[in-house]
Amino acid sequence: MSFHDVTHCIFDMDGLLLDTESLYTMAYNRVTQEYGKTYGWEHKAKIMGFRSAEALQTIIDMLQLPITVQMFEDKLAAIYQEVFPGCNLMPGAEKLLQHLKKNNVPIALATSSSQDSSELKTQKWKHIFDLFNHKVYGGSDPEVTKGKPSPDIFLIAAKRFPDNPNPSKCLIFEDSPNGVQAAINAKMQVVMVPDPQLPKHLTKNATLVLRSLEDFKPEDFGLPPFVA
C-alpha cells in the first residue's frame, strides 16, 4: 500500500475514540423493544456516523415505529444520562493522541454528536479531549449544514486549523462507513477502525483498515513514529 504524507489529523469520536457504540445499541433497543421491534446490525450499519435526528428518523422508518423523532429523543435522554458518563476510551486512543500532541501534529475532533452530548460522554476524559486544537460538533455547529457522508464536517475541521491546510494533507480516523465516505468526498485519506461485527464489504473504500488504533504506524503517513 502506498500512502501520501500528511501534516494534520482529524478524528471521529463515537466508536473510534470512545467505546459508545454498544451503549447506543442498548439505548436504541430499550426504546424500539417497547414497540416489539429489535434494532440490529443491518440497521446500525446504515446510520453510523449520522447526526442524531437523522439517525433516529432512519430507525423510525426502517422499523416502522409509531413515534416521532422528538418522542424518541425524549426517551433516549434519560438513558444517555445514565450510561454515557461512564464510557471508556477505545484501545490505543490515548497513546496516539498524546503522541501526536507531543510531536506538534495539529489534531481536531469532528464528531456528528452535539456539544452537549459530547460533553456528557467525555466528562471522565476531559484531559484527553483537551488535547485537540479544536472540536467540530456536527450535531450542533451551525456551519455543518449536512451530516456524513457529506464532506462538510471534515472540510470545516480542516479550515479551522490556523494554517488552513489543503484537504489532501489531512488524515481522517473513522469507524463508520458513512464517515469513511465523508472523508473520501472531502478528498482526504482515511484510516478506518471498524467494529469487528461490521460486514467486511463496508470497509473496502478506506485508505487503510486497522483492527485497533494500537496498530496505527504514524510513519506510514509521514508522521513522527512512536519511540520504543
TrEMBL record:
Its cofactor is Mg(2+). It is an enzyme of class 3 (hydrolase). GO terms for molecular function: metal ion binding; pseudouridine 5'-phosphatase activity. The keyword Protease does not apply. It catalyses: psi-UMP + H2O = pseudouridine + phosphate. Its EC number is 3.1.3.96. It holds the Pfam family HAD_2. It comes from the Eukaryota. SUPFAM superfamilies: HAD-like. Keywords: Hydrolase, Magnesium, Metal-binding. InterPro entries: HAD-like_sf, HAD-SF_hydro_IA, HAD_2, HAD_sf, PGP-like_dom2. Belongs to the HAD-like hydrolase superfamily. CbbY/CbbZ/Gph/YieH family. This is pseudouridine 5'-phosphatase.
